[in-house]
Amino acid sequence: xxxxxxxxxxxxxxxxxxxxxxxxxxxxxxxxxxxxxxxxxxxxxxxxxxxxxxxxxxxxxxxxxxxxxxxxxxxxxxxxxxxxxxxxxxxxxxxxxxxxxxxxxxxxxxxxxxxxxxxxxxxxxxxxxxxxxxxxxxxxxxxxxxxxxxxxxxxxxxxxxxxxxxxxxxxxxxxxxxxxxxxxxxxxxxxxxxxxxxxxxxxxxxxxxxxxxxxxxxxxxxxxxxxxxxxxxxxxxxxxxxxxxxxxxxxxxxxxxxxxxxxxxxxxxxxxxxxxxxxxxxxxx
Length: 285
Known about the structure:
By secondary structure, this protein is mainly β. The protein is built from 1 helix and 26 strands. The protein is globular, with a radius of gyration of 19 Å.
């Protein structure tokens, strides 16, 4: 676990150098000794100014490329500084999801305030839409928070992971391994006819990511790709070279949408959509 969490931080700071057909990846690891509040990194986001914000079990760090600065959302210690999710919205605000509530931070003033309507939420993930709403997965349920009105709407659906498309439609993976679509215009939820992923025992979906016409699905037992045009599911990678099942933590698409970076308990993988090749990235520094 510790190796993965260090890797998660390295993904945001990775330097890639190309020479001929070879690619060399250099990693620099940061821990408590370098200024992190905790070695267990749980979330990373970059703001409009280029600062990297890092959520940990003990609070929030900001990295400027040289040093780490520490912040504690729950200064009154009425809840927890254990951060589970970090997101930025269109106004540049940073939303901080913890195990005991959601906080909103203005990076310009560095003021952090607890969102009263979300004070007791044990957050798993959050996503803002283009209208400024915040979609939250907490305690297995789905919630929509409207910051302008200060209201929250809860949907009666057990959610494992979510993703938002360009039209603000919400793609949902349920804890039962099924897929649903919540239309932004009507708020109606419909089933996606792609069939459930193969599951055995206590195995879960951990992450959804839309890339072009594909829905990438990260699970505790591998990564899958659903062709949304053909409604066909493909296995991308189920086990590492040791035969251990791939536990996916995050999926990030490159700017050109040609590559997907997959953070897992087995390390970092890069999937090329054009060639359908997957590469296990190793530290060559």
